[in-house]
Amino acid sequence: MKRNTLLGLAGLALAALLLIGCRGGEQTGTVISDDPMEIARARGLSPADVVAAVKTYQPTGKYDEYIMFASGGHSGQVLVIGIPSMRLLKVIGVFTPEPWQGWGFSKETQEVLAQGNYDGKELTWGDVHHPALSETNGDYDGQFLFVNEKANARVAVIDLRDFETKQIVKNPLSLSDHGGAFVTPNTEWVIEGGQYAAPFEGYAPLDQYKERYRGLITFWKFDRERGRILPEQSFALELPPYWQDVCDAGKQVSEGWVFCNSFNTEMATGGVEKGNPPFEAGASQRDMDYLHVINLRKAVELVEAGRTRTIKGFKVLPLDVAAAEGVLYFVPEPKSPHGVDVSPDGNYLVIAGKLDPHATIYNFQKIQEAIANERFSGRDDYGVPILDFDAVIETQIELGLGPLHTQFDPNGYAYTSLFLESAVVRWTLGGPWAEKHGRNPWTVVDKVSVHYNIGHLAVAEGDVVNPDGRYLVAMNKWSVDRFANVGPLLPQNFQLIDIGNPNGPMQLLYDMPIALGEPHYAQIIKADKLQPWEVYPEVGWDPSTQSRHPAATRPGEERIERRGNTVEIWMTATRSHFTPEHVEVRKGDRVIWHITNIERARDATHGFSLPGYNFNLSIEPGETATIEFVADRDGVFAFYCTEFCSALHLEMAGYFLVRP
Amino acid sequence: MTWLDKIIGPRIPDSVLHHERRRFRRPTLLLGTAALLLLISIFFPYWRIRLYAPQYPGGLVAKVYVNRVEGDVREIDALNHYIGMRPLEEAAQLERSLSIILIAAMALLVAGAIYVHSPWAAVLSLPALLYPLIFLADLYYWLWNFGTNLDPRAPLSSSVKPFVPPLLGEGKVGQFRVVAIWDIGLWLAILASILILVGLYYHRKAYKPFYEAYVRGEMA
Questions:
Q1: Which end of chain A, N or C, is more open, meaning fewer C-beta atoms within 10 Å of its C-beta?
Q2: In-domain check, residue B62
Q3: Nearest C-alpha in B relative to A649
């Protein structure tokens, strides 16, 4: 009924606007009318604009049907966005301190952040790239989110019961990664492919590049019960010093296999200032680079059989073992490709050309046959067998300029981002998929312009066994003229595209500026697969362990205890007071301060700030948080609640008195 | 004839029982059902109050059972502290601690009345008959007690005057609209009272002639 009314209104507006046929770029003045047609006319909206508005508008209290987890780029965080409204729902603190959530201020969260330190050095930013939702049988299950950080080769685990980061692992062997995070169909392994080759340990000059520099792909073992990556059960696969790029895990027929692209198989070492070709040229000399085809099951067997070396306390499956034992094969791929994306049935690998307008489609069955029949065209310098290109490709298809990444819908269509062309192209899969769409296989059927320089795209559940395919979000690197000028640094542009009707054109619906970093990739999940908590399960909860906090404090148990020079405080917070309200210490005392929010009401979060000592906490209903510091300056410090919790919020304060 | 015989009343001869089964079964069934309903009522809330305010889209609810309060008690207590109302846990502690035993006893007495074939059956049933009224009176006392004994040092003590929440129907406290309803448990108890009344009527009809003959010494 409601939908019909809306459609009716949209239809009326459409008809009126078609008659007028106006299309204004500029927004006009105030509109005082209740007539949708008049408003649309006055605002200069086209019929398509009105349809887009009606398709995306969410009235108050109505929830989005899909949730997108997007990388927060340089911010080091993860963005949670509702679709189709494109409303920002949350910024999850991951690799970077985030004051609103108290992320990196409480002892508990500082410990998680410190897991990501590089050789003891605290890192205060992250280059967040690829979020990966946990999967069960190849479909998103809504339990966990993994995300990698390219600048320092780190992977984080986010628990989707409370949308908080639980773990950060720093890759001990690599300083950069790109091909992560990706998960195997049942999330046994989180894949992190490296990027810029370097020695695993210490220093080596560039003239020893071939001998001493190495690439790698790391397989992090995930324990779903504990919600943690287990570094001691994880391992890295040693690779030649090609620059590994994006990866994807096999599924269905290709489950147990992993695929990664590479570039710079030239092993160029740059040095433009020394008269060498710059990397951009040196790494683009050969016509072909290598698709890495990895037999993960076999690799795990070898690791379990103890065929690893241990470097920096981390298991490494050596390159010669991998090459000799059938773990690693190379397949030539047109040079400098970008995305490698596995079709929902697991049989086709789509390698986007980046510098070449074609996508190359490989057939996994043919790869298996070529391996079985040893159809090698040779071996690389490191002894890795190279499969014969013609024996394993299914086809090549011209998609447009600068194809990068591909995802899928349930009807046998694939969608590829075209960076140079600033477009998204829809094309048909072949083989068994031809029945689904009933069109010519391997053919481009539609294209829509995006604004501008698209990198990744995300189709709703578009990289799983059972794709959803309702919406597509184009993640554009440049916005140029799309938004009001805010100075020389421009936001990026997420564009929502309706791909729900495979027989009709794709329709651009909405532009969402992203103004805190370059978000590389995102995944979109049906909202009903997420079942987060409304409040923590019990009072005195430690989100960092998802269990009862040892310092959980119930009403009546509040106290301050001194042991030598250490003062420990067990405090509670509720509307609208902290208990106790006076905390008195001596200068130089070590202060351990636990605060439990004893509220059970949804949204009754209390903040806790201790100005002068640079603390701000977010203590959500039920949560216990701790700060620990040395009271190294004397004086009087008023602490207060930093979440407007109640009518007497300003009164929710106390004094921290440090005697000289 | 001892006083106990007088209380217990006559036993009905088998021949009469056999011929007029319905006459004697009726009070037995009614009183038995009443006793059962009373016992069942323990498992249901008796009274329920809902509080509505904009920031609580689903409202807040307190469900009063004979021995406990359930629902959003913690949140209601948190709000009540602003006006200086004591925590709900402190209300009717004695009543709540004894309620199960007392209700079981009342039900037992009603069941006992089935076997007492004298006017004493009415005396035994009296507590259960009056029980809903007693419950409501006690509830009202506590509503009054809590609503009129507000802590004068509470943050909002000056802006909320003492009040008595409604026993049934709508009221207003601060920004909250409150709606009180009588819940299943209480309705079961009321139904039990009605059944007792009807049961006693048939009890009297069934046993009165025998009882009179009995006290005249015409029956063994």
A1: N
A2: yes
A3: B155
